[in-house]
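Notebook p. 47: complex prediction with iron/sulfur cluster.
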Amino acid sequence: MLNKEKTMEALSRMYEMFPRAIGELHSDSPFQLLIAVILSAQATDVSVNKATPALFAAYPTPEALAQAPMDDIVAKIRTIGLYRNKAKNIKACAQMLLDNYGGIVPASREELVKLPGVGRKTANVVLGDAFGVPAIAVDTHVERVTKRLRICKLNASVTEVEATLMRKIPKELWVKSHHTLIFFGRYHCTARSPKCEICPLLDMCQDGKDRLKATRN
Ligand code: SF4
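Predicted complex, structure tokens below:
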């Protein structure tokens, strides 16, 4: 397992590789970001970014989305995976924002996770990107990369991965590290073809060394 110091060494190398890592979902407000993140569950950011311009043009606010006809919401997001459930969730989410929060997205995890379609990961993305509240959202890329590098145990749950990262990374770097780990996983240490042979972290990655050995044998 990589200790705190080695974890920060690994992250420093990733920061150098991806100095401009940021959230890739398009939005113009905390509300739009919240909706985009709900839509991005088990879907790519690219597919969400293709659908949200029409959705947000028609329904830019909680008021508008809460009153939107369900058929039209479905039509606007049907290219995104799980669109029927997501359509229900974003409409209900908009309604709950109006009913309980005066139409304002709450800047607290405790309140965010009460909204339909919002789990801890979604709440953490919104906290970090919309409100600048330190948080680490563990998605498939963050989990894969941290396990390959043995920053976290291989059998760690998503909650344990998050807790381990929060322990090993200084709080002021949580949001930056979250985005950097996603970029590193999305564009370099990918699920199917990690670029181990040109990886600046190879010397500290047993997984990468084992992969290269296996391909050479
Ligand atoms: Fe990922 Fe390979 Fe780099 Fe390890 S060496 S971090 S598995 S790309």
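Notes: The radius of gyration is 19 Å. The chain has a mean pLDDT of 97.
Next step: compare against the earlier run before touching the bench.
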